[in-house]
Structure prediction request, 248 residues.
Amino acid sequence: MPDVMSSSRLVGVGVGPGDPELVTVKGVNALRAADVVVVPVMDTGEVGRAEATVVHYVPQEKILRVVFALNERSDRSRREAAWDAAGEQVAELLRTHGSVAFATIGDPNVYSTFTYLAHTIGELVPDVVVETVPGITAMQDLAARSGAVLTEGTEPLTLVPVTAGAAVLKDALAGPGTVVAYKFGRQAAEVAEALRETGRIEDAVWGSALGLDGESIRSAAELDGAALPYLSTLIAPARRDGSRGGKL
Prediction:
């Protein structure tokens, strides 16, 4: 077994929200340079969104699925046990390979599985070098596809994961600037209510499966309370008076 501990590298690579054309050149190079590309899944037989993107750039035999409890929220002990097992599996890869890439949808530093994995690996393989390659986020992709402008001039931008609760989103909507909500599919009814109560539903847009078969991009005013895909994204643009350059 080669001793690669002192030089092993774990690289978190953001592969975008789903459209293979939105992987950066640097991201593709990092995936191809790695000895192994790990992709997170909830089940060993699943082809996740990250893998579906990565396979466009590296051979299938170089890709390894590692099971993470990505949707486990009620049973903390089960979730932590799954994370520990996944961390041990990746740590073992780093003990036998010089470079391991971890492909994550979006960006590895924005609500990413990679953040937790890197922390675990830092404890298991203290000498590992951890790096990240930024990726296109879902809010950027939705803005481009829908024509929504994320920010102008001095407007703030607030990003809220609705897994923290719809009340957090409502507080953000009551403030200034553009508000982006992630992971709100299961609480679509509460999100629609918050948008209506704050008077921001007419200009808001939501999207899911961006860049994939089954893509849906619609006005938030069309939300009827039915549950949406978990990885749904919402953009509620800042209130603007229509003047050009008024906030510069």
